[in-house]
Amino acid sequence: MEEILNKVADLVSTLSPAQWCQSFFTLSAALILALQILPQDVRRAMMDYGPRRPKDGKSKSKKEDDEKQGFAVLRSFLKDLTEYGQVPHSWFMHFYITSVSLSGFWAWQYLTRGSVLRSIATWQDRAGRSSMSLEQVYIAWLLMALQGSRRLYESLFVFKPGSSPMWFIHWALGVAFYAVISLAVWIEGSSAILSCWDSPNQSLNIPRRLLSAVLFYSVAYFKQNQCHRHLASLKKYTLPTEGWFKYLICPHYTAECILYLAIAWIAAPPGELFNKSILTAVAFVAVNLGATAKGTKAWYENKFGSDKVADRWIMIPPVY
């Protein structure tokens, strides 16, 4: 047993914390993509939540009927599986509680030179890779904290409380995402953090990318809030039509991707275009929300008619 534990410890130490973050986001995105090859009915049973979640009864298309016959056993198993562990959609709030709490935790660890941050930063520093500057760490942390705080505020005061269900796997993956990205926004600046602790009177410089990053971040930040307020103001299951919704099925998802891309841009270590740890998070967000947005479009088409959304991109114009 001791030998096995030593091998596990060696395996864990082989990768840096940044690489562990990147691995989590990459594998999670790969899992979401893998689910897309499943038959439509099976995929919907596993991924859809809220009003889009399929209900028992007759299929709405011949395609679904054919898929049900071909995968009857698998569909039955997965359908039964997803009926267990249902949690309210309102538990989305836990994502943002996690985000805000961990932003505060890492700030406290930095200010008090805490042992948790020191251990992780030292582990990352041993990898010997180029580091973000201290200014970049501050900015990336602040932008992430602002995003988490706004989303928590919206959950508390903008969105109407709902009890529509989602599978607990969605909830667990969301909590894990916000936990890992709270680490990813500063982990590639570990060397700068340790250096600051050793020499606390270092001068700070404005990063060259600050203006462009803040510009893109601000547009996405306020547009997402606008989208969320519009959605919250609608009568139940009404087709959204204001602002970016005129051109996109899920513009609030588009804004989410832009937000994280802006953070990846401002947090890039020297010689790199983007911060890889945050960029893999962007990839996961794009894949995860892209799959959800595709389901939303199909649901809109069934409920309101395909002509109502025919001229809208799903999430990323002019690609998707």
Automatic annotation (TrEMBL):
One cellular component (GO) term of this entry: endoplasmic reticulum membrane
Reaction catalysis annotation: a di-trans,poly-cis-dolichal + NADP(+) = a di-trans,poly-cis-polyprenal + NADPH + H(+)
Database matches in Pfam families: Steroid_dh
Biological process according to GO: dolichol-linked oligosaccharide biosynthetic process; polyprenol catabolic process
InterPro entries cross-referenced by the UniProt entry: 3-oxo-5_a-steroid_4-DH_C, Dfg10/SRD5A3
PROSITE patterns named among the record's database cross-references: S5A_REDUCTASE
Residue intervals passing through the bilayer: 20-38, 91-108, 167-186
Localization of this protein: Endomembrane system; Endoplasmic reticulum membrane
Protein EC: 1.3.1.94
Keywords per UniProt: Endoplasmic reticulum, Membrane, NADP, Oxidoreductase, Transmembrane, Transmembrane helix
Molecular function in Gene Ontology: 3-oxo-5-alpha-steroid 4-dehydrogenase activity; polyprenal reductase activity; polyprenol reductase activity
Top-level EC class as recorded in UniProt: oxidoreductase
Span of domain 3-oxo-5-alpha-steroid 4-dehydrogenase C-terminal: 201-320
Similarity comment: Belongs to the steroid 5-alpha reductase family. Polyprenal reductase subfamily.
Matches recorded under PANTHER family: DFG10 PROTEIN, POLYPRENOL REDUCTASE
UniProt function note: Plays a key role in early steps of protein N-linked glycosylation by being involved in the conversion of polyprenol into dolichol. Acts as a polyprenal reductase that mediates the reduction of polyprenal into dolichal in a NADP-dependent mechanism. Dolichols are required for the synthesis of dolichol-linked monosaccharides and the oligosaccharide precursor used for N-glycosylation.
Protein name in the entry: Polyprenal reductase
Annotated source species: Fusarium mangiferae (Mango malformation disease fungus)
